[in-house]
Amino acid sequence: MRNYHHLRLWLCLFVLAGVLSACTPNQPTPVAEEAPPVTVMPPLLTPAPTNGVTTITFGAQGWHQERFAPYIRQFNDINPDIKVEFVSLDDIAPITSPEEEALATVEAVDTAQPVRVGLWERMHPYYRDLRPLMEADANFDPSDFHPSSLEDATVDGGIYVLPHTRFVPLLSYNKELFAAQGIPEPTADWTWQDLRAAAEQLAQREDNEVTTYGLLGDVSGSGTTAVIGELMTIDPTLATTPVSQAEIDVDIAVQAIEQVLNLAETGAVYVRSDEGETNRTYIGLVNAGKIGMWPTGLLNDPLDQPAFEVGTIPFPDIPILLYSIIDGYVMSPGTQHPEAAWRWLSFLSQQSVPLELFSESFYTVPARISVTEESDRWQRFDALTIETIQADLSEPLVPYSVAATRTADWLVTGGGLRRVLNGEQTALVAAQEAQTELEAFKLAEQAQPDVDVDTLVVEAPVADTAPADASTITFASNVVNLQPLVDQFHQEQAEVFVQLEAVNNPTLTDLANTTDCFATWAPPTSAQQAALLDLRPLWDADTTLSRDVFPSAVLAPFEQDGALYGLPHRVDIPTLHYNPALFDAANLTYPTADWSLDDFVASATQLTQERDDLYGFAVVGDHTTALEWWLQREGVLQDTGELTWTDPDVLAALQGYVDLLTSTSPHKQLVGYTSTSPPDLTTQLVTGEQVAMWLDGRLTFGDTHYLGDGETIQVPLPGGTIENRAEDVEVTTGLYIAADTPHADACWQWLRYVSDNVTGIIGGMPARTDDVITERFAQDAEPGQSEVHAVYREALARATNREVQTFFLHDPNLDPFWFYRALDQALQGANLEQELTNAQQLTEAYLACVDAGGVGGDCAVETDPDYDGWQQTISGDE
C-alpha cells in the first residue's frame, strides 16, 4: 500500500529497537539483533544426579520471555542435568499487594524475576534466603557487586535477592542556562542546599508565570525529592532514623511543605499541578530549555537528546525515594531443587540481560562489576557520563530506607502536596492527614499474620510435550505474546502441537530460516518472498475459509503473480479522536462518518474560539500522516511522476493545511520528518482536555486512551468517500509459513486458528472483515473503533482494481524532507510558495545525484548541508 509509510514504519521500529518489547504497550522490532554474549561458568555446588534431568521453572512477565530465552537455552546446553523452563507471571502482574504478589510468585515457580521492583523489606519473608547458597559456592565472589548492591538485598542478615541491576541516580543540567545566570557548574560534593540555591537562581518568571524551572527532582513531577531535602534540612536525624521508626512531626512537616510550596511558586522546583502530565511533558520542557536540572534517565532515548550542552553529576547526598537501589532474581522457599535453582540464578546474574528497568527515572547498570564493564549499555555512555557513574558506583548510596523518605512519601502520596499547591487545603491539614494515614498504615502492618512458608512446595511443571500422534511445529511471533492462544489451541485439538519460540528482533528472512511458521511486521518485499511458502494451494484446499474474508486491497500486498505469500492479520487506520465533553460545552454536534473537510474546519474553528486555552485540532506525534490525509481528501494526490508542488491546486491545499494548524492548533512546528523530534507538548494538552479533536500519527501498539476520567471517541477521518478511504489503510502484520517447512499443513491449521481470533490486534484493527471477526473485535474495541471498522469494511469491499499511486509520498526512491521543511517553515511564517519552489529544486538536485549513482544519504547531505531527514538517522546508526 503506502510504500513511503512502510519505510517510515521500519525506520521507526529500527530507532526504537531495544526500547520497545512484545506487543503489550511495548513492542518488539523487526530488526535483527544478536543476544548479548553469554558467560559460561563452571558447575557450582553438587551437580544434580546424572541419571536424570532436574527441571526447574523460571518466572517473569510474558513480554520478557524473548530476552531470557537465549540464556535459558545456553544454560540448558552447558548443564545437561538441569532443564530450565520459562513460566509467564502475567496473571500475577495485576495483584496490588506486594505480599500477595510475592506469595503467588513463590507458589508458582522455583525462581523468578519478580513483577514488582523492590519493596524487599515487605516481600522478603516469602523468598528463600540465598546467603547459605552463596557461602557454599566457592565460585561466588561478593566483591564483584557494586557497593550497596548486596547490602540492599539483605534483611535481618539474610540475602533474599540476587541483584542483576543497580539503579544510578544522576542529575543532568542545562549548561547554557547555568552560564546565562552566571551560576558555577555543580561539583560532585554539592549538598541539597547548594542544589536549592542553584534552582532558585535558574527559575525565571514573566508576567507572573514561570518560564524556566530550576529543578525537576523526579520524573513523576511529585516534588518528593524537594520534600526530602527540606525535611532533612530541618531535622537531620531523619537521614539516620530507620524507616520502621518513621513518624510525622506535624510542625516539621508543615515547615517542609511550606518551603517546597515557596520553591514551587517561584519555579525553583517543578511540582505538577494535575494528573494529566506524563514523562513526555517533562521531556518537552527540558528540550525547550525550560527546566535547568532533571533526573538523567529522563532523556535516555537518543531521539530525545537536546540541542544544548548537558552536564551530569551525582545527586546530592540525600536519600532518593526508591523502593530499592537494585532489582534482581529470587528463589522460592518451596523449590524442591535449591542447588539446581542456585546454579541457574548465579549463571543468570553473570549475564547482561537487557531489561531496561527504570530507564525513564535513573540510569541502570548491571549489579556485577564484571558485567558492567562488558555491557553494551555501558559502551553507549559518553566519557563524562561514564566517569560520573563510576564515581557514583564507587560509594554506597545514602540509605533510602530511612525516616526521611517514608515521611516525604506520605506527605506527597495521595496528592496532598499538590492540593496545597492548588490552594485546595492548607499545609497543616495535609500534614495532619498524612500523620493519620501513616499511623493507620503502621497499625495495619502490625496486624499482618506471620508468614509461614515452611510447608510451601513448588509443584513440578506439567510436561509440555506433544501428543504421540501430533505434528509439532515451531512458531515465532515478535508482534504479540500468543502463548494464551497456543494453550487454548492445544485444549481444542490434538493433531498439531505448537512450540512457541521467543525471538529477539529478527528479520522476516531470519524467521523463515529458523521456524516453520511465524507472525511479523509488514508485508514481504519481493526479495523476501523466496523464503516464504505460497499459501494459495493450502487456501484453495481449505473449504472452510471464504475467499471474501479479506478485502482485495488488504490482500494485494501479499500477492505476486498469482501466489499468496502470507495472510494479513492487522491493519492500521488513522482515525479522528474527539472529546465529547468539549463538544457538549460548545453546544456542537459530534463528528460523524460523513463529515466533510469544511464541516471539520468549521467545528475546529468554533471550538478554538470557545476559550483562550482550548484548541479545536491537534496532531499527536507524526504530522506526515495527517498531512497525507489532508492532501488526499483535497484531491491532490495525483498519479504523476513529476514534482508539481507549486501547482495552484496543490499550493491551495497545502496553504489550507498550514492555515488549519495556524488558526486551530497549538503547533508551531511540523513534527515527524527530521532525525530528531521537537518536544511533545501535545499529549499534555490532550490529556488536560485542552484539545477537542486530534489525529494520532504515532505507531500505536497499546491502547489509545487519553483521558483519565472522561471518554474519547474515534470516528473516520473527515472528507472520506467510498473511493478514497481504502488508501487510509496500512497492513502492519502478517502470518507466514516458511518455504522449506515439512509441516505446511499443520502450520496452515495453526495460522487459520490465529486468523480466526483477534488476539494480537492491540491498537489496530483486524485485516479480516467477515462478520465473525468483526463481532469479536467489537467486544473489546475502544469507543467508536468498531463503527470505524464497519465504515472501512464498506470502502474496502468497493476498492477493486486500484492503481498504485506514484505521488512522492508513496515513492520509496524520493526523500520528502525538503517538502516537509517547506511546510514547517510556512507554519513558522515563511512564504509557502517560495519555500516549496526552493524545496522542489533541492529535491530535483537530490534525485539527479542518486540517478548518477550516488548513495541516498550522501546525496542528501551534498545537496543540502542542513539536511536532517531520516537518511541521516540511518547513516548515524550505521
Please outline the helices and strands.
Layout (H helix, E strand, L loop, with lengths): L2 H13 L38 E7 L4 H14 L3 E7 L9 H11 L2 E2 L7 H4 L7 H6 L12 H4 L1 E2 L2 E2 L2 E7 L1 E5 H6 L11 H11 L1 E3 L2 E7 L8 H11 L15 H17 L12 H9 L3 E5 L14 E5 L11 E6 L6 H12 L13 E4 L2 H6 L1 H5 L2 H11 L9 H10 L3 H6 L5 H20 L24 E7 L5 H10 L3 E6 L6 H7 L2 E5 L14 H6 L10 H4 L3 E2 L2 E2 L2 E6 L2 E4 L1 H6 L11 H12 L6 E6 L2 H11 L14 H17 L17 H6 L3 E6 L16 E4 L13 E8 L6 H12 L9 E2 L4 H10 L4 H14 L18 H11 L4 H20 L4 H8 L6 H8 L1
- Rounded Rg: 29 Å
Unreliable stretches: 1-51, 801-806, 873-878
* Strand content range: 5-15%
Percent helix: 25-40%
SSE-based structural type: alpha+beta
Query: What is the count of helical runs?
Result: 34
Distance between the termini: 28 Å
What general outline do the C-alpha atoms trace? globular
The tally of strands reads 25
Overall average residue pLDDT: 82
For the sheet with most strands, the description reads:
6 strands, mixed
Describe the structure.
The chain is α+β, with helices and mostly antiparallel strands and 878 residues long. It is 38% helix and 14% strand. The chain has a 6-stranded mixed beta sheet, sandwiched between helices. The radius of gyration is 29 Å and the shape is globular. The two termini are 28 Å apart. The model is unreliable at 1-51, 801-806 and 873-878 (pLDDT under 50).
